[in-house]
Amino acid sequence: ESARDNYLFNLKQVDGLSSPSILGVIGLMAAYQKGAPWLDGLKTYLYENHHYVAQTLAEQLPSVGYQIPDATYLAWIDLSSLSIDMDKLNQCLIKKHKVAIMQGSTYGEVGKYFVRLNLGCPREKVEKGLMALISAVKELTE
Fold it and tell me: Dihedral of CA 58/103/86/112: which sign?
C-alpha cells in the first residue's frame, strides 16, 4: 500500500475531514457570489487601521519610519532604530500594559527587532495595542 493511499484512508477516518460540511459549502458559495461589498469594506477598514498606525508612529516615534505594506492585516514595526532590548520590551508590554504583541524573532533572525501588530480587529484594540507599545518603548528608552 502506498503512503498516499494510507494517508487518504486515514484522512477519511478522522471526523470527516476529507469532505466539507454542507454549511461550509453554502458559506463558501455565498462569500464568492455576494461577498464583494463586505470584502471591499474590510480592505478599507484595514487600510485605515494601517494609516492610523503610520500616522501615530510618525508623531510619537518618528525614528521608527513605519511603512504601510501592500497586502496584509499585520503591521510589521521595525524598532531597530531605537536600540531597545526586545525581551525587556516584551516583558514590559505583558506585565505592565497587559498587552501581548508578537515578537518578530519568533519568525527568525531577520525579524529580531520587529514586532507584529495584528490590525485585523476593531480600531479600539489597535489603539490599545499601539499606545501600549509606544508607552513601553518610551519607558525603556528614556
Answer: negative
